[in-house]
Every structure is written in structure tokens, then in C-alpha cells.
Amino acid sequence: MANKITFIGAGNMASAIIGGLIDSGVEPSTITATAPNDSELAAIKQRLGINTDTDNNAAVAEADVVVLAVKPQIMRNVCEALRDSIQQQQPLVISIAAGLYADTIDQWLGGHNAMVRCMPNTPSLVGYGASGLYANAKVSDAQREIATQLMEAVGIVEWVEEEALLDAVTAVSGSAPAYFFLMFEAMEEAAVKLGLPAATARRLAIQTALGAATMAQQSDKDPATLKQNVMSPGGTTERAIHHMEEAQLRTTIADAMQACADRAQAMAKELSGS
């Protein structure tokens, strides 16, 4: 990727993506990150060797790609202050802010921009992210590839053709790390009641999840088949799975994901003022 990339915002997610890009071979000299003051930029500049700036407009002036990595609550002010520079430079704009429609950000930037909206998740911070991406009609095939390469620096990428589907992405990956953390928490508590030390239970639960995820990722079989392969008739796994089914675990998960998607949609409307 030979493009000049500017990150507006230098927080954890921006730092993770920048680190991933550099690890994949992108020259640090082609990357700039901005923040309101130099003290916020000193650590990332020293650690990654990238360019930094406290002036967003100056940082955008020669950028081919601009990644908006600021909190949704301040996005409007940031975008409106960048409007003239974005209109003059016409870069690919990628937003990784949750809950803001691509059209809303595009309007704040003056309109007619090539916009990609990205829904990453927190495992991106350790290189195992899962990101959903949506592109508006202004984004070229070449720009889609740039966005793909950028987010693949921290994990896998899946494109959706309708922006509304990002609410489903939020439910299945964006918010989902917390679902698994809850599962670890519940398994640890149950194992302690069965007599295991908490630290032992936690290590076993997390390692088992890692192993199961790796098996599912590498296998050509679907999860239902993999599950069935572990269930010996009349055995311990079958008994546990039957108990979960009788407790309507599937319904609980489906209802939770629907609630997540509904809240994502509501937040987008609230933040856009619609």
C-alpha cells in the first residue's frame, strides 16, 4: 500500500491498525496520526515512527486515505472543521466510529465523498479482529481494496452491500467479544462451585474456547457437525448440550443479538440527529 494515510485520532484502535499496517510492510513515513496536543502523540510517534500532527487540516492536505478514528460524540465538529480540506483533496474517507451513518458523515464533510464505514471489534487490538465494511457509491474498486488491506492488518474483513446490515455485524462481531467474556465468567464461576481454583478454571475455559475457535476456523465442517462430533450418545457432552437446549440458549442468544442490533440502529439515529 503506497498511499498516504492520515488517521484523525490516535487512540487504541487507530494505534492497533497503524501497528498492523507497519507489520504488514507499510512504510511508517506514509502514515500520519493526529491528536489535539503533542503529549497524546509522543508515545505512538516513538513506538511506531510515524508522522504526527496536531493540525487535522494540515495532516489531510496530502492524504490519499483519511481514517476517522474519533469518538462519535465529537465527530460532527471534527468533520465540519475538515470540510474544506476534504473537499479539496478528495481522499477515500474511512470511518471506524460506531453508530454514525456514512451519509451523515459525508454531509458533515461537504458531500460527494468516497466513504467507507467500518465496524471493527476490540480483538483488533491484538490482531484478531473481525470488521464489517460498507462502501457508498463513490468508492471505486481500487479504494475498496485499499480499505480491505487497511482493516486486514488487524484481522478479517467482510463487506456488506447494504449499510443497514452493519447493525447485524455489530450484533455478531462488534459487540460479541463481550458475549464470550460473559461465557468465560459463567464457566469460571460454575467450575469454582465444582471445586476447581478460579485461576485453573479460567485458563481451561479460555484455552478451550481458543481451541474450539481454531478448529471451527480450520475445518470444512459447519459448527453443527463439529458439535455433534463431540457428543457421544449418552455421554457427558450430550447431557450438557441437551440442558442448554432445554434452557433455550439459542433463543437467549437470538434475543440478545436482536436487542444489540436494535440499539445500534437507535444510536445511529440519535447521533445523526434524525
Automatic annotation (TrEMBL):
Its EC number is 1.5.1.2. It catalyses: L-proline + NAD(+) = (S)-1-pyrroline-5-carboxylate + NADH + 2 H(+); L-proline + NADP(+) = (S)-1-pyrroline-5-carboxylate + NADPH + 2 H(+). The keyword Cell membrane does not apply. Catalyzes the reduction of 1-pyrroline-5-carboxylate (PCA) to L-proline. GO terms for biological process: L-proline biosynthetic process. InterPro entries: 6-PGluconate_DH-like_C_sf, NAD(P)-bd_dom_sf, P5C_Rdtase_cat_N, P5CR_dimer, Pyrroline-COOH_reductase. The keyword NADP applies. It is found in: Cytoplasm. Keywords: Amino-acid biosynthesis, Cytoplasm, NADP, Oxidoreductase, Proline biosynthesis. Pathway: Amino-acid biosynthesis; L-proline biosynthesis; L-proline from L-glutamate 5-semialdehyde: step 1/1. Residues 4-99 form the Pyrroline-5-carboxylate reductase catalytic N-terminal domain. Residues 163-267 form the Pyrroline-5-carboxylate reductase dimerisation domain. This is Pyrroline-5-carboxylate reductase. NADPH binds at residue 56. NADP(+) binds at residues 8-13, 69-72. NCBIfam families: proC (TIGR00112). It is an enzyme of class 1 (oxidoreductase). It holds the Pfam family P5CR_dimer. One of its GO terms (cellular component) is cytoplasm. It comes from the Bacteria. GO terms for molecular function: pyrroline-5-carboxylate reductase activity. Belongs to the pyrroline-5-carboxylate reductase family. Its main location: cytoplasm. Signal peptide: none annotated.
